[in-house]
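note to self: dont lose this again. the chain is below, predicted strucutre after it. 194 aa total, dont forget to put it in the shared folder this time
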Amino acid sequence: MAEPRHRLSAEEYLAFERQSEERHEYLDGEVFAMTGASLRHNRIIWNLVGTLAPQLRGRPCEAFIADMRIQVAATGLYTYPDLVVVCGEPRLADAYLDTLLNPTLIVEVLSPSTEATDRGRKFAHYRTLESLAEVVLVAQERVQVERYSRQPEGGWLLFEANRLEDRLLLPAIGCELPLADLYETVFDGTSPPV
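---
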């Protein structure tokens, strides 16, 4: 007979997480260690930030990468998307200022080990966030970017781009994403400019 595992409350998870050097996701009392990112993953994030930062400058939207935890209050998920943009005033869970409640856009860079979860279970959690207008999934093994946009009736509409000459519009944050910029250096083995 297996011994019952100790389940953490959300408060216990947050206390543990704030002391930990590694990041962990949390759902239903369970804590899940997050794995490191690949070279391609890091290059895509670097390019994404480099492309969006100038477009967001001087506007009422702010981007956060990797270390900004979000809480999905309706389902109890705590997670760290690869990139989050919030438009308007950020709402934070508490005085620690490390858990965002109202993302406008979430970007996940897919890997072979996380793609099914990011497309399925995690996306289902994200859809319950009332503030969320768009979710972008970026493949790292091929040129493919999908934007899911919340529709007025509550459904989600898919827009897909899969050629380097494509430009994906991100209307919720007033930006566009040229795929040539997003995938620059990702497949050719060179490093991004510093």
